[in-house]
Each structure stands twice: as structure tokens, then as C-alpha cells.
């Protein structure tokens, strides 16, 4: 599937949304660690690189497991925020690099992981880079928190709001990789997947901040911003219980080794 990506450089999409991203994006279920332990032999001694590590949400899961984590992030503002968020973890190493050029040494990591980021990569170049930095028999694990569209009346209406007001949303909502694309990326290596429920229970400020952390949400000053916020207020008032609404996600993980015939298609 060929996707026409937005004109904005993906590496800079979130530069003006860092604060909202830090405060309002969901974390990742700890069950992801269980999968990687059981299926891939993850231990606290495994060396992990988190590609597109951003503000550190995914990296923190591995740091709390005791892993050395190289957080590779091309966006300076996001990288700075990640360094601040994770400064208490002595095993975190911040790297100014990208999926296509990590700057890491050959055969230096046991796991390449990416949370909410792989769909922005140049797949062919990233695949070559991952193969270079992985140790023999290393693993690639890709994770997304995907909104459970249609799971509840609130989630249905929230999706309609995004379609109505989001800038380029109809394009961006299709950039997440499909199973066939991932199978091509992994090549002859077997790719497996599992799904977990993930939730956020947010008040009004949390809902507004979560929306504004998205790259397609019009910023203040954009003529679409105020109408979007008014509709969001109405949506919150209609569905809140005890001053909160639930944002429901499906956290999906893909994992596998890269096979020798992978990387046939570009990004």
C-alpha cells in the first residue's frame, strides 16, 4: 500500500506539542514486557534501543525493567523532554539520531523497539539500519496505542470530531502499518502480534490536552481551533461521569526477527 504522507517533515511534526505530549499521552501496558520475556527472552540485561523515543513513554517501561535503553530521537524538542522525564534512570542514553541513521554501533543491541513511531519511518532504510545495529538473533518489536474507535458512544463521537476538525486527519489515520506491510518489513522472519486493552480516565483538561497532543489538531490561532474546542466541550459534557471520560485504546504489539529477504519495499 502506497501512502501519500503529509508535507510536514514527520521528524518535526510534534515540535510545538511537546508539553501536551508529556502530560496527556497514554503509557503502555506492562503486559508488553511479559510478551517479550516469554516470546523473545527479554531479561534486565538485554540492551534495548527505542527508536523515535520522543518524551520517553515507551522507554520508561524498559528502564523500569532494568534495561539499558538507547533512546534515539531526531526531534530536538522531544529529545530534550525525554531527557528531562528520564533523568532519574541511570541506564537511559539519549541519542540524536533517526530510524534510518541511529549512530549506534554495529551489532550493539538485543532489541529494537518503537512505540507509536514506526509508521513515520522510511521502511527500507530503517530495516537496513535495524539489521545493522541488532546483535545476531536480535528482535524488533513495534507497538501502537490505537484508539478503540466505535467501542463506546464516546469513542464513536470523538472519532467523528477528529474527522470533522482534524487537519489532514483523513490522511494521517491511514499511515499506521497494516499486517501485510509488516510481514513485508520482517521478510522471511515470522512476525507475531498480540493486543491488550489500555485506558485513560481523563478530566476536561486531560481530554483537551490529549487532543492537542495530536499532530492533526488545529493550534490556537487556526480558524478551526475554536470550533473544535467548542465541540469537544459539548462532547465531554454529554459523556462525562464524575467529571471524567474514558479514552479506550487497543495496545497492539508486533514482534519478530528480520528475515534475509525483508526490505523489498520502500517507505
Describe the structure.
The protein is an alpha/beta fold and 267 residues long. Helix 1 packs across helix 9 (204-212) and helix 6 (153-165) packs antiparallel against helix 10 (225-239). It has a 7-stranded mixed β-sheet with strand order 3-2-1-4-5-7-6. 35% of the residues lie in helices and 22% in strands. The protein has 10 helices and 7 strands.
Note the overall shape: globular
Q: Quote the beta fraction.
A: 15-25%
Number of DSSP strand runs: 7
For the largest beta-sheet, the strand count, sense and barrel status come to: 7 strands, mixed
CATH topology descriptor: Rossmann fold
Helical content band: 25-40%
Order of helices and strands: HHEHEHEEHEHHHEHHE
Number of helices: 10
Q: What is the assigned CATH homologous superfamily? A: Vaccinia Virus protein VP39
Top-tier CATH class: Alpha Beta
The total number of structural domains is 1
Separation of termini? 10 Å
List segments where confidence is low: pLDDT < 50 over at least 5 consecutive residues: 1-10, 12-16, 262-267
Secondary structure class reads alpha/beta
CATH architecture: 3-Layer(aba) Sandwich
Kindly report the average pLDDT value.
88
Task: Write down the Rg.
Answer: 18 Å
Q: For the largest sheet, list the strands in their spatial order.
A: 3-2-1-4-5-7-6
Amino acid at each position: 500500500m502506497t501512502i501519500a504522507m503529509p508535507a510536514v517533515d514527520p521528524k518535526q511534526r510534534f515540535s510545538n506539542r511537546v508539553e501536551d505530549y508529556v502530560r496527556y499521552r497514554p503509557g503502555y501496558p506492562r503486559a508488553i514486557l511479559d510478551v517479550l520475556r516469554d516470546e523473545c527472552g527479554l531479561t534486565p540485561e538485554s540492551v534495548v534501543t527505542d527508536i523515535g523515543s520522543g518524551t520517553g513513554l515507551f522507554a520508561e517501561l524498559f528502564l523500569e525493567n532494568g534495561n539499558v535503553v538507547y533512546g534515539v530521537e531526531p526531534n530536538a524538542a522531544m529529545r530534550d523532554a525525554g531527557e528531562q522525564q528520564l533523568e532519574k534512570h541511570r541506564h537511559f542514553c539519549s541519542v540524536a539520531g533517526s530510524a534510518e541513521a541511529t549512530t549506534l554501533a554495529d551489532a550493539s543491541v538485543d532489541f529494537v523497539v518503537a512505540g507509536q513511531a514506526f509508521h513515520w519511518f522510511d521502511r527500507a532504510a530503517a530495516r537496513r539500519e535495524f539489521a545493522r545495529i541488532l546483535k545476531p538473533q536480535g528482535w524488533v518489536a513495534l507497538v501502537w496505542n490505537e484508539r478503540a474507535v466505535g467501542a463506546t458512544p464516546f469513542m464513536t463521537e470523538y472519532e467523528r470530531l477528529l474527522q470533522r476538525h482534524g487537519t489532514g486527519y483523513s490522511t494521517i489515520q491511514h499511515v499506521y502499518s497494516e499486517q501485510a506491510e509488516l510481514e513485508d518489513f520482517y521478510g522471511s522472519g515470522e512476525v507475531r502480534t498480540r493486543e491488550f486493552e489500555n485506558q485513560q480516565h481523563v478530566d476536561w483538561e486531560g481530554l483537551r490536552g490529549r487532543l492537542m497532543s495530536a499532530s492533526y489538531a488545529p493550534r490556537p490561532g487556526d480558524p478551526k481551533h475554536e470550533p473544535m474546542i467548542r465541540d469537544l466541550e459539548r462532547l465531554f459534557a454529554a459523556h462525562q461521569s464524575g467529571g471524567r471520560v474514558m479514552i479506550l485504546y487497543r495496545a497492539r504489539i508486533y514482534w519478530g526477527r528480520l528475515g534475509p529477504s525483508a526490505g523489498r519495499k520502500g517507505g
